[in-house]
Structure formats: structure tokens, C-alpha cells
Amino acid sequence: MGIGPLVAWRRTSLRALGASLVGPAIFALACGIALVAFGAGSSPPGLVAYTFCAFVLGAIALEFIRGTRARRALDRSSWPAAFSSLVGRNRRRYGGYIVHAAIVLLALGIAGGAYGSTKVQKLEPGQTMRIGGYDLRYLGSVVRNEPNRTEIRARLAVSRGRQRLGTYLAGKNNYPVEGEVSNEVGIRTDWLRAQDLFLIGDQFNNDGSVVIKALVNPLVDLIWLAGFVFLLGSLIAMWPDEREQRRLARRGAPVPAT
User: Fold this and answer.
1) Segments of the chain scoring below 70 in pLDDT
2) Running DSSP on this structure, what letter comes out for residue 150?
3) Which of 18, 47, 127, 201 could form a disulfide with 154 if both were Cys (CB 3.0 to 4.6 A apart)?
4) How many CA atoms lie within 13 A of 14 on its CB side?
């Protein structure tokens, strides 16, 4: 996906392709080195996935930069105007590039699972567990009877350092008629850090203690963002082009008999 857009149809050569790959390859290598420097080398599969994603993003950015520079040289316009004109005149091509970027975001969100954390711990009221920089303090359990179910929830005060992030509930619903039990998960989404904290009340004991399963999922929010970027690229690629419609109309026009 990173190499394909750089290959000119029927006009490429190994030398030209190699020259086009230099920029994205250097960008990917720099990202890989930076990730190792910041401690992301603990997961080789995740590091490889991130590096290749950086290569694809670099190739997409290179195509936009080269196209905008060429359009600016032709129109003698500003960078924003040249970029808008470039996308407007080549909607299918550059809309497709945006779809490629959405797939990269999806891959990054999935690869983030390689750096996730999971911890299971039994807590007494007042005790604290720590995971992924979060402190979870167990405040006790609450039980509530509803017409068709019994709810039990563990109250967990979540904080990061000295910052209090709120109280979250994790527990179970017991449906006596159906004979079923469902888990009700407490979720905290951190959009700035692009990660989710999942809290599961795994087991509730008669002495008031509880077994909590906590999961930290990095970059999972990129999966949601990828859907919106994919939709944007699809709309750009499918948006009607007046010039294309005129060409099709001329092509389908009846030719006078001679």
C-alpha cells in the first residue's frame, strides 16, 4: 500500500522508484528509532507494525506534497489553494489516498494491543491496585434490585498521579428468570492519550472483597477515528465531478451518419 502509489503506470523505472522510496523509508526509520528511544521496543511485532505504518503514511504525505507543489507551480497560487485544487481535480486518486490513511489508522489501533496491560487482583475495601499509570481504589460494592434483575457494582475511584479522574462502576447483572449473568464493564476513554481503561468486576465475595480485572488498551480510539477518515475519503472519491460528467456526455452523444 505504501509502494503502489509511488509507481507511475507504465512510466516507472527501478531508479525512479528507488528515488521515490527514499523519503518514506527515511521517515519510517526515524520513527522506528524514536519509538525505541521512547521505550516502544518491548514488543518487536508492535515496533515492526508501527514502522511499516509510518512508511505508508510517509508515502501518502509525499504524494500530496508533490502534487500540491506541481499544482502551485502551474496556478501560481498559495499552498492551501493549490491543495484544494489538486484534490478537486483528482478526487478519485486523492480520496483513495485518504482511504489508505484510514486503513493505516486501523492498523495502528490494532497494533496498539501489543503494548496493552492486563492485571487481576483481589481487593478489600480501601485497598488500591495500579496498572498502566492508573491507581484504582476500591470503595466498596453496592447492590440494587430491579424488576427483572439484581445489579451488583464495585465502586472504583480512578486517579493518575495526583489527578482524580472520577469514580467508575464495574460489576454484574443477575437475571433470575433467564438464569443468566452479564458483565457490566466500567470504561474510561482518554482521548488525549488515545487509550481506554476497562474495569471488570470478575468476582464478588461474601466478605465484601472483590476480584477486579483491569485492562489498558492503547491507541484503541484510532480504530474509531479510522472509520470517520475512511468515510471522508470515500465521499471525496465518489463525489460527482462535473468535468467527468461532461466527458461521459460527449462520449455517449450520437454521431451523425455520413
Assistant:
1) 243-245, 247-248, 252-253, 255-258
2) E
3) 201
4) 0
Question: At 75, which amino acid appears?
Answer: D
- Which pLDDT tens digit goes with each residue over 203-227? 999 999 999 999 999 988 899 899 9
pTM above 0.70, yes or no: yes
What are the CA-CA distances from residue 229 to residues 9, 41, 104, 201 (Å)? 27, 28, 10, 35
Please give the Cα distance from 216 to 209 (Å, whole number).
22
Which grid cell is 49? 507494525
**What pLDDT is attached to residue 245?**
67
**DSSP letter assigned to residue 254:** P
Q: Which residues of 17-36 are buried (b: 16+ CB within 10 A; e: fewer)?
A: eeebbebbbebbeebbeebe
Helix-strand-coil percent breakdown of the chain, rounded to 5? 50, 30, 20
User: Which amino acid makes up residue 26?
Assistant: I
* Residues 27-55 pLDDT 10s: 999 999 998 888 777 788 888 999 999 99
Q: How far is 54 from 91, CA to CA, in rounded Å?
A: 24
pLDDT in tens, 153-172: 999 999 998 899 999 999 99
**How far apart, in Å, are the Cα atoms of 141 and each of 154, 172, 174, 213, 240?**
4, 11, 15, 15, 58
Sketch the domain layout of the chain as residue ranges: 4-113+221-249, 116-218
Query: Which residue in the block uniquely carries the three cell numbers 464493564?
Result: 185
Round to whole Å and give the CA distance between 249 and 236.
Answer: 22
Please list, in sequence order, all residues whose beta carbon lies within 8 angstroms of the beta carbon of residue 88, skipping any fewer than 6 positions away. none
Burial zone of 130 (CB within 10 Å; 0-12 exposed, 13-18 middle, 19+ buried): exposed
Cell numbers placing 111? 497494533
Q: How far is it, in rounded angstroms, from Cα 256 to Cα 258?
A: 7
